[in-house]
Amino acid sequence: MSHSDKPVPESNNRLRGSLTSDINKPDFRELDLGSPVSPLRSQPRGLTTTTTTTSSSSSSSSGSVTGRIRHAPVTGRSGSVTGSQSGSRSDSVTSNSQQPLSSSSSATSPSTAAANVLPTGNICPSGKIQITGMTQSRSRSDVLGSGTGTYGHGSIMRGGGGSSVSPAKPISTRQALSSPVTVGGSSRSSPVAVGSDPEEVKRVGNEMYKKGLFSEALKLYDKAIALSPTNAAYRSNRAAALTGLSRIGEAVKECEEALRLDPNYGRAHHRLALLLIRLGQVDSARKHLCLFGKPSDPMELRKLEAVENHMSKCADARKLGDWKAALMEADAAIVSGADFSSQLGMCKVEALLKLHRLDDAHSKLLEVPRAEPFPASCSQTRFSGISCEAYTYFVKAHIEMALGRFENAVMAAEKASKIDPRSNEVAMLHNTVTLVARARVRGNDLYKSERYTEASSAYAEGLRLDPCNAILYCNRAACWFKLGMWERSVEDCNQALRFQPRYTKPLLRRAACNNKMERWAAAVSDYEALRKELPHDKEVAESLFHAQVALKKSRGEEVLNMEFGGEVEEVYSREQFKAAMNLPGVSVIHFSTVSDHQCKQLSPFVDSLCTRYPSIHFLTVDIDKCPSIGNAENVRVVPTVKIYKNGTRVKEIVCPSKEVLEYSVRHYSG
Predict the structure, then answer these.
(1) How many other CB atoms are found less than 10 A from the CB of residue 12?
(2) Which regions are annotated as TPR repeats (predicted)?
């Protein structure tokens, strides 16, 4: 059996064997008028079929006729058809011994069309003859000649000797997909002869593959497999289409099935080796790449060795706790060719987590490639002493712990332990996660009971087992806050923020502690950082406002009539405008019109600035409603923004961008 790389036609030994053994066996027992292969069938009135016949030659007659043939009702009959081929031999076809007709036969008409009958089978418009229920592939073709036989419109001649046969047109993609699949000689509808040839279906699939239409190619390969389930090449081609669709796990499974059908199929070994390299399964890949003692592709062998080298260095760096080196080597292995390796992706996640880059680790976790279904042959492959499948859950357990989802962490650790019960590292993690989760639950229960000292001890037990857990630090800081131990609370908040810099709970708690200790500058800094993370939180905005007022007072600045606002005030009169300009502190006045497009875009942003900078007064003036204010302020273009500080104008911006406006507001709010 010969196989192809990217889909090329191959012979079907099984089918060829069956044809050889049954060459002299009939395709049916007896012909009758009720059979779909009836030799003579009347045509319904009014139905005509136009056929163009080709010239044929034999020892008895030759001719060329083009005309309209009508089926005449004829009673059933049996007999023999004798036709000569090249003037030297004749074949007799009876109900007991008949050669199978070819699906690529062509029909010829005699010089006299008075008989108006058709031979056994259906004459297709293309000139092909199809016998329903007969063998689909033939070792040699039969054609209808114009010999001396009186059966139908000519003699059945093997091999096409003396006939000029029109070649069959190639099957189109639509025909291949729409024609019914026949398996075991049966179909749900009348099959298209050419569409039932698995090699032809595969050929069209190859064309789709070359065009990059992998989904269409996959459907055609599926059909070819349905027609010939034991053909290893079709499985290999299906693996190629799945690879194009990034369905790597399924592609591996198809290659393994191809090798089950034909263990010596070199192309399937090569394709499987390339897939295993992408998955980072270098040991298994080498077995298939060097099947016969030497590599089938030296270039791929070099790729394999590069991947293997970087993966080895990555595993060594992980064992040493050199997470920067582990991250670098994992990236190098991926670039070298292991671009679909889940263990390398999870190693990057673990390294980022150990480097206290939780946000990056969490986003990278979502990008880790997943080979689904996970190949069974790869399940026991190990990375850094842990099976690859278990390592995925191992790292997930760490991520869930860091995010405070302790129940999810316990479940992930349990899965890792079940997959790889031999790994000491997995067993230790399972034990640690279970104990930390219990400590956290106990601490929460004690906190709810207002037993804050005992709760802090429970959280401390969890931190002893997991000293980098920001959630436990934050929870213990809450206990210190309730006990009035502000300094200790700030220390635990600092630790939590060290491991998770964007964790808002410890930042809020630290700001509250700074308020309690009247560290106004530190409190304002914390609340401003919170405003960036929670721009629409009014409580944070109000806390920031009060901290800013307290800071001004501590510096001896005048803070008369400063109240927390939160809404942009609309100005309707000159008197109201003068009063607003003379307010203590900073006032931002937005001059606009309702009809102006830029003003419509800027107004919502001014509203958001008002919420984010509550210590500043924000006002808006519609110069169409109050033209006197616009004239007095010499506003000629809208939108225009003017900033006043303690009654003095310090800034004027015409048609400001959002970035420039916010920078100015932030600058003068300090």
Answers:
(1) 18
(2) 198-231, 390-423
Cα–Cα dist 670/660, whole Å: 16
Around Cβ 505, how many Cβ atoms within 10 Å? 18
Could you tell me the two tokens for 8?
A: 């090329």
- Which residues touch 646 (CB under 8 Å, ≥6 apart)? 584, 585
Q: How far is 603 from 254, CA to CA, in rounded Å?
A: 60
Beta bridge partners of 641: 590, 653
Q: Which amino acid is at 411?
A: M
The C-alpha atoms of residue 238 and residue 229 are separated, in whole angstroms, by 12
The answer to whether residues 480 and 509 touch, using CB atoms and an 8 Å cutoff, is no
Tokens of 597: 């497009």
Strands 586-592 and 617-622: parallel
Give the sign of the dihedral formed by CA 510, CA 513, CA 517, CA 520. positive
pLDDT in the model for residue 258:
94
pLDDT at residue 442 greater than cutoff 90: yes
Stretch 575-586: mean pLDDT: 83
Q: How far is CA 285 from CA 195, 233, 265, 340, 431, in A?
A: 37, 20, 15, 14, 35
Helix axes of 342-354 and 358-365: crossing angle, nearest 10 degrees:
170
Beta strands 382-383 and 386-387 are antiparallel
Residue appearing with tokens 């008002």: 610
Q: 14 in the Ramachandran plot: left (φ > 0), alpha (ψ -120 to 50) or beta? A: alpha
User: Rounded to whole angstroms, how far apart are CA atoms 137 and 132?
Assistant: 13
Per-residue tokens: 554 = 């501590």
Q: Hey, is 22 helix, strand or coil?
A: coil
Query: What is the Cα–Cα distance from 585 to 333, expressed in whole angstroms?
Result: 59
Enumerate residues 6+ apart whose C-beta is below 8 A from 502.
359, 533
251-268 mean pLDDT:
92
Q: Which residues of 344-379 are buried (b: 16+ CB within 10 A; e: fewer)?
A: bbbbbbbbbbbebbbeebeebbeebbebeebbeebe
The radius of gyration of the chain's CA atoms, rounded to the nearest angstrom, is: 42
Distinct helix (H) and strand (E) counts, the chain: 25, 17
CA distance 51 to 127: 8
- 50 pairs with which residues across the strands? 68
Q: Is the CB of residue 136 less than 8 Å from the CB of residue 196?
A: yes
CA 651, 540, 517 angle in degrees (round to 5)?
100
CA distance 487 to 141: 96
Sort strands 569-571 and 49-52 into parallel, antiparallel or unpaired. unpaired
Angle between the 214-227 and 198-210 helix axes, to the nearest 10 degrees?
170
Helices of type H across 517-636: 520-533, 538-554, 574-581, 597-612, 627-632
Average pLDDT for residues 128-155, to the nearest whole number?
39
Give, as one character, the DSSP assignment of residue 616.
Answer: S
Diameter of the chain measured on Cα atoms: 127
Residue 254 pLDDT > 80: yes
Q: Which tokens hold the place of 474? A: 């934050």
The amino acid at 552: K
